[in-house]
Amino acid sequence: MSELINRSAVELRDLLDNGEISAVDVLDAHLARVEAVEASVNAFITITDDVARAQAQAADQRIKNGTAGPMTGIPVGLKDILCTTDAPTTAGSKLLEGYRSPYDATVVKMLREQDALFIGKANTDEFAMGSSTEHSAYQFTSNPWKLDHVPGGSSGGSAAAVSAQEVSVSLGSDTGGSIRQPAGFCGVVGLKPTYGRVSRFGLIAFASSLDQIGPFARSVEDAALLLGAISGKDPNDATSVDTAIPDYRATLGGDLTGVRVGVAEEYQIDGMDSRVEESVKQAIGELEKLGAEIVPISLPHTEHALATYYIIAPAEASANLARFDGVKYGMSLAQDNLLDTYLQTRGKGFGPEVKRRIMLGTYALSSGYYDAYYVQAQKVRTLIKRDFDEAFQNVDVIAAPTSPTVSFQRGARSADPMQMYLSDVFTIPANMAGIPGIAVPCGFADGLPVSLQFMGRAFDEATVLRVAHAYEQNTEWHTSNPPLDAQISTAS
Amino acid sequence: MQFETIIGLEVHAQLLTESKMFCRCSAGYASADPNTHVCPVCLGLPGALPVINHGAVQATIMTGLALTCSIPEYSKFDRKNYIYPDLMKGYQISQYDLPLCGGGVLPLVIDGKRKDIGITRVHLEEDTARLVHRTANGETYSLVDVNRSGVPLMEIVSEPDMRSPEEARAYLMALRQILRYIGVSTANMEEGAFRCDANVSQRTLDGSVIGPKVEIKNMNSFRSVERALAFEVERQRKALRDGEALVQETRGWVEDQGITVSQRTKEFAHDYRYFPEPDLPPLVLDRAEVDGIQSRMAELPTARRDRFIEQYGLNEREAELLTVEREVADFFEVTVDGDSDRAREASNWITGEIFALMRDSGLELEDVKISPEQIRELIELVGEDTINNRTAKEVLVAVHETGKSPREIVEERGLAQVSDEAQLLAVVRSVVDEHPDAVTDYQNGKKAAIGFLIGQVMRQMRGTANPGVARSLLEQTLAERVTS
């Protein structure tokens, strides 16, 4: 049964529905894999095998009764920033160590109702702030392709768990690239849906106007499967949108004839890894071969996206994180007076990156600075959005690198936050505009995956998935797995 | 130096919605155990998100319309950031630069003259949790009751148009009356559903001296608002006269000492770092919806008073008395039931007997066990001469005490008026026989003596004699006695 970890979610779906395997078989295979590799990968903060075991049994019953859903019996990893009732939810922070949410996030509830198998809560940069998962207060997660390299972030645990075949698929959250960048670093598919496509209820907020939950998978089709299971208007999230949800899997297939793919000059920047540039160039050539028309476009405000992001996201975060005061839940370092309780709890509970962003955001919103920073950033954000609106008048998708570099060694960028922030320079614009973006493998550089990004019109995930799928199905990049066993046996 | 007082008021009124501002928890927590009306949203738990209660938006717009405020096409919520244990998220969802209602007016009548108080804005926000401070074994501690957290709270900001504590009080009374009329708030100050902060300053009439603005908090009744403002006016005037430093600050009213004390000076003012609430889409206010709210709005007290004068021929004082509370005005109109001829009697009964009953028993109108239909029946019983006015008053008390209808009581107690001449004549004759002095007085020209004799007839008849018939029979009998 160990070969079950090599199966995609859609293959498992067929095998389960045909009765060739049971959900318990699927679970056992994946828990065995977790047992074998997790000590090296450290993708999970909490393993929830007991939860998954009960779900597997319920899933088998469900399949027998003919009431299985698309995700029934499929092993899933959940970023540990999604609230769950039956496991702690830490957001990667000491401040929430052991915190137990009394409610499930909407996406968790949706998967739970189908009896998907919750394998564990995946590691994340503290409150999703980071690009390497090194800012987790709990552990370093390794990149399965090179264990001394970072998996990207902030959803590094979710990306690594899928890459290491500990789960079939996983959920992460993407505020400025936190799904696409780690997907790229770990050589898997990662999709940030349109803002409003997936409910944020129960996602511990980093930057509310940018956060979006989305899937990781080892194939575009699996990502489409999971996206379909979590999409939709949620009465508990006023920013979720009531719009038709296509059958994403059904829209996949066919070549790219008539598809117009935009390539923006602004997505070639100084300091970019030339191997990434080369891979992306080849990928675009491949798209052309598949019938796509390559259209040069301009997104002139792209260069301001990073700076804009580092005003808006910290500003929102400074308010979102105000509730963690040591009085109501989570870590509490109670002192003789209230102010000292706040200062001690927040001073010791938050890590340096979180504090840095709270300070940045507080400053940007302060009286006397608000207009120069926050208001100005919102104006630029509108311009970035307009860039995309104009571009999508002429093209169906935009192709770009996911990140300017491949994964880097642990610690290599820790000393320089600006270098770390640059990791997200190509992913941030989609968050600013609220549009969907997908990362798919498009090559290797010294054994580390390179990733191609497709961005699309708001709520047009179907086109983004279809183009990514056509590219994937005509290339081999997604078929190789990381040499994890070899690395582990060398280490031991 | 001759000073003028400048007062502006900020009123917070809890809205009477069923659920809270941003979650489905019940907003009616008054008699609930602490922390029983709570959920992840109003507790501010990680990951929880707010969803707008449109009932609260509509109630706020209705308030704005009642105050003739402009209603914009576009409004939004903002986060007001500050940290305090009663604020579950570390920020309050409020409205900053685009409130639901813009400028308006609240007309007052002061010393018989109309004075318009400008309304700056009306906006919507969420209430905070309630802190309870306790001491046990010499240690102080605080408890948090989250039931109040997230209850819809409307803030009504006035222009600095009031010139005395009395005007401030009149404004508050009028505002409360309107909120109660349109049914958006109980506006009960003692229960905290209606709270007031005041900004007060002094300036000389020639404008040569302008004192700093002082904000007064902690006033828990209309009386304390008036007292606190009166104290503050004197404090500020004395300081200005004596050349003492007066600073812009927030002061708290200390009820039992009758003074205000400094709480926070300008240097320590909060920077609330307002920014648009990203969890909530902006509000687009459809004209048709605003018109719909306008059409559903109850008639306002001033309009209703004027109509009562016009439609029912009441005098100003009666109309005023009948429209102070919407419940009373409604009671009056149900009693009248479209028949203006009944208005005079209805007004007399309500402002006379019903008000007296309420005053004596300390009951609110809704607790008095008399219905408008019963008053109507009473008026009919008098009108058809079944009972006289005196008996009617007795019947009214019996209705309140027993809950029975006036007709039932009249029947049961045999209170129906006696108009039968033969029956009455016997009584009249016996009264005349028993009171020769009064008869002599009458015959000597003291016609008023007949009143005494009618009273005696009534006494013998336990009030049921038809006074008109009794009078004419008496006159007849007395005339006969002279001739005989």
Describe the structure.
The complex is a heterodimer of chains A (492) and B (484). Chain A has helices at residues 9-17, 23-41, 49-65, 106-113, 156-163, 180-186, 220-230, 274-289, 305-320, 338-349, 352-365, 371-394, 417-422, 428-433, 461-473, 484-491, and strands at residues 44-47, 75-79, 117-122, 169-174, 189-192, 212-217, 260-264, 293-297, 397-401, 437-445, 448-456. Chain A is an alpha/beta fold. Chain A has a single domain (2-260, 406-491), classed as Amidase signature (AS) enzymes (Alpha-Beta Complex). In chain A, α7 packs antiparallel against α15 (461-473) and α9 (305-320) packs across α11. The longest helix of chain A is centred in the C-terminal third of the chain and has 24 residues, at 371-394. Chain B is α+β, with helices and mostly antiparallel strands and 484 residues long. Chain B folds into 3 domains: 3-288, no CATH class; 294-412, no CATH class; 421-483, Arc Repressor Mutant, subunit A. Chain B has helices spanning 54-66, 165-181, 222-241, 287-296, 301-312, 316-323, 326-336, 343-361, 372-383, 389-402, 406-412, 421-434, 436-443, 449-460, 467-483, and strands spanning 3-14, 74-75, 78-81, 91-94, 104-110, 113-126, 130-136, 139-145, 152-158, 194-204, 214-219, 249-254, 259-265, 275-276, 283-284. The radius of gyration of chain B is 31 Å and the shape is elongated. Classes of the chains: A alpha/beta (492), B alpha+beta (484). At the A-B interface, α9 of A face loops of B.
